[in-house]
C-alpha cells in the first residue's frame, strides 16, 4: 500500500475554519429526509464543468450522463453519488461528476439508485450492480468506478462482486473511493478519536442513516460493508479521506485489508479536510488537487488497458 499524507495548505486553512464555523450549529443533527432539499442545493453549488449532460437509463436504472467534448469511444466511468443512502440524486451530482468526465475525456453515468427509507438495503447495492453489469455487457467498453461517501462504498462493493465472479462479469479497471463508509457496524476507532475534529458528523448522527438504510439487516453483510466482504482479486484502488472525519479509519482499515489480500491500494490522507472534501473543488486547493490526482489515476488505468 502507498500511503500519502497531504499537509494542510495555508490557503485552505482559513476556508476550512470558516466552514467549521458555518456548520457548527448543525453538527450531529440528524435531519433525515428533511435534509434532501438543502443537500440538493449544496451539491448543485459545486463549481460546474464544461460538460453536456443528459438523462439516461442503464441496466433499468435511470440517471444522468455527463459527456465531455471528444470523449474516448471505448471507455466509461460510473459515478456513484453520496448521501448516506438517503440524500442526493444523480441530477444534483452532475456538476461534481462532470469534473471527472472532463479530466478523463470519458462519458460518465451517475445512477439514481433507490434510496432509504423508501427502499432499504439491499436496493442501492442491487441498482449499483445492475448498472455495472449492464454497461459491461455492452462490450468493448473499459469501465472504471468513482464514488464519494456511500457512493465510494458502492464502488468498492461492485469491485468485489465482479472479482468474485470473473466468469460472469467483466473486471472493472479500478476504483476511486472518496471517504468510503466501509464498516456499517460503525466500530472504527476514529468514530471516537475524530469525534471532536469532524465538523459535520457524530457517530449517533450517522447511526440514524445506517439504521434507516439497513432496516434491520446485518451490518456485516458483505453487500453492505466492504470491510467484511470478499476482497481478493481486486483491481487498483485509490482512496482519499479527510484526516478530520470520523470515517478516517474506515478508509485505513479497508486499505490495510485490501493490501493484505494483494490489491494495489493508494491511500491519501488529507490534513484538516472534512468528509468528501473533493466536492469543494473551486473552493479548496486540496479539493482541486485531489480531483486532479484521482483523474490522473483513472487516466493511467484507462490508457494502460489499451
Structural overview:
- The chain is α/β, with parallel strands linked by helices and 306 residues long.
- It has one domain: Rossmann fold, CATH 3.40.50.
- It is built from nine helices and nine strands.
- The protein has helices at 10-23, 36-44, 94-104, 123-137, 150-164, 190-193, 203-214, 248-260, 285-304, and strands at 2-6, 52-58, 61-67, 75-80, 108-111, 142-148, 175-178, 237-242, 265-270.
- Helix 3 (94-104) packs across helix 9 (285-304) and helix 4 packs across helix 5 (150-164).
- The model has no long low-confidence stretch (mean pLDDT 95).
Order of helices and strands: EHHEEEHEHEHEHHEHEH
Strand content: 15-25%
Identify the overall geometry. Answer: globular
CATH topology: Rossmann fold
Which structural category do the helix and sheet elements fall into? Answer: alpha/beta
Number of helices: 9
**CATH homology group:** Alpha/Beta hydrolase fold, catalytic domain
Instruction: Provide the helix percentage.
Output: 25-40%
Kindly state the mean pLDDT as a whole number? Answer: 95
Provide the spatial order of strands within the biggest beta sheet: 1-9-8-7-6-4-5-3-2
Distance between the termini: 25 Å
Total discrete domains: 1
Q: Uncertain runs with pLDDT below 50, 5 residues or more? A: none
In total, the number of strands is: 9
CATH class descriptor name: Alpha Beta
Specify the biggest β-sheet: 9 strands, mixed
Radius of gyration: 18 Å
CATH architecture: 3-Layer(aba) Sandwich
Amino acid at each position: 500500500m502507498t500511503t500519502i499524507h497531504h499537509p494542510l495548505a495555508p490557503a485552505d486553512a482559513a476556508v476550512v475554519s470558516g466552514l467549521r464555523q458555518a456548520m457548527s450549529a448543525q453538527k450531529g443533527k440528524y435531519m433525515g429526509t428533511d435534509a434532501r432539499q438543502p443537500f440538493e442545493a449544496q451539491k448543485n453549488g459545486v463549481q460546474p464543468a464544461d460538460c453536456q449532460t443528459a438523462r439516461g437509463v442503464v441496466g433499468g436504472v435511470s440517471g444522468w450522463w455527463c459527456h465531455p467534448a471528444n470523449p474516448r469511444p471505448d471507455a466509461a466511468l460510473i459515478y456513484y453519488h453520496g448521501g448516506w443512502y438517503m440524500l442526493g440524486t444523480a441530477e444534483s451530482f452532475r456538476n461534481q461528476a462532470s469534473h471527472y468526465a472532463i479530466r478523463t475525456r470519458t462519458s460518465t453515468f451517475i445512477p439514481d439508485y433507490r434510496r432509504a427509507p423508501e427502499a432499504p438495503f439491499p436496493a442501492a447495492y442491487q441498482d449499483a450492480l445492475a448498472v455495472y453489469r449492464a454497461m459491461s455487457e455492452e462490450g468493448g467498453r473499459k469501465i472504471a468506478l468513482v464514488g464519494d461517501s456511500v457512493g465510494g462504498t458502492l464502488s468498492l462493493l461492485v469491485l468485489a462482486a465482479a472479482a468474485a465472479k470473473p466468469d460472469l462479469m467483466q473486471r472493472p479497471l479500478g476504483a476511486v473511493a472518496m471517504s468510503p463508509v466501509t464498516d456499517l457496524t460503525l466500530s472504527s476507532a476514529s468514530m471516537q478519536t475524530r469525534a471532536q475534529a469532524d465538523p459535520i458528523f457524530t457517530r449517533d448522527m450517522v447511526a440514524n442513516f445506517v439504521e434507516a438504510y439497513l432496516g434491520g439487516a446485518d451490518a456485516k453483510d458483505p453487500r453492505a460493508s466492504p470491510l467484511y466482504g470478499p476482497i481478493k482479486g481486486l483491481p487498483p484502488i485509490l482512496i482519499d479521506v479527510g484526516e478530520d472525519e470520523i470515517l478516517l479509519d474506515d478508509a485505513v482499515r479497508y486499505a490495510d485489508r485490501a493490501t493484505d489480500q494483494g490489491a494495489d491500494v493508494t491511500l491519501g490522507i488529507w490534513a484538516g479536510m472534512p468528509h468528501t472534501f473533493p466536492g469543494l473543488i473551486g473552493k479548496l486547493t486540496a479539493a482541486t488537487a485531489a480531483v486532479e490526482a484521482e483523474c490522473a489515476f483513472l487516466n493511467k488505468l484507462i490508457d494502460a488497458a489499451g
